[in-house]
Design goal:
Number of strands: 12
Structural class: mainly beta
Number of helices: 4
Largest sheet: 7 strands, mixed
Distance between the termini: 26 Å
Length: about 200
């Protein structure tokens, strides 16, 4: 497999690749269970919990300021892809239009298909995080999490939830799907926070 689909980091990019990772030649697709098929017309996004409840449809969400992003992407299954180009909305732009209770310490990401993943609020509200709806200038495919996914570049990619449709703000940590099934609570690639207890 190494050589055909993956390669070792070179001296030029080695400082951008976390320990134990190899560079992917393409953009692998890894999904547990069926891939949700959600059109932009039926897509909805909500916030609830320790926040003023709000709901957006696609056209409403697209009224938020949009940006282009280039970010490295690190999967817990030991591959990385550098310089991935996305189009989306910064998390900080969403934060500007919602009212979060000061007691909120964690966010549960909810997705079509029932997937969940947890993230501490300080990891969530970072300037480099965004909601992506295009990948390399093309509408985000269902396989890559379309019509919308969250991208959190500084954590392993299972925190960049595909098919996102809601955020639940909490005053405590609850574990999401993979966290309940043995993955690390935070998932920081440079510390190799892959699994619980590591």
């Amino acid at each position: 497999m190494l050589g055909k689909f993956f390669q070792k980091p070179t001296s030029e990019n080695g400082d951008r690749v976390p320990p134990g990772q190899h560079l992917a030649q393409g953009f692998p697709v890894l999904t547990y269970g069926a891939t949700p098929q959600v059109s932009r017309e039926e897509w909805e996004f909500s916030v609830w919990g320790l926040v003023q409840p709000q709901k957006w449809n696609w056209s409403d969400f697209m009224k938020l300021p949009q940006n282009e992003f280039t970010a490295d992407f690190h999967c817990v299954t030991r591959w990385s892809k550098l310089d991935v180009k996305w189009t989306g909305v910064k998390v900080t732009e969403l934060i500007k239009v919602i009212q979060i209770d000061s007691k909120a310490t964690h966010v549960m990401e909810h997705c079509y298909g029932g997937y969940t993943t947890n993230i501490a609020i300080e990891d969530f509200v970072r300037e480099e995080n965004f909601f992506a709806f295009k990948l390399f200038n093309e509408p985000l495919s269902a396989e890559h999490g379309g019509p919308m996914r969250l991208v959190v570049p500084h954590l392993y990619a299972w925190k960049s939830a595909k098919w996102i449709n809601g955020l639940e703000f909490l005053d405590h940590e609850e574990l999401g799907f993979w966290e309940r099934n043995g993955y690390h609570r935070r998932g920081e690639p440079w510390a190799e926070e892959r699994y619980s207890g590591f």
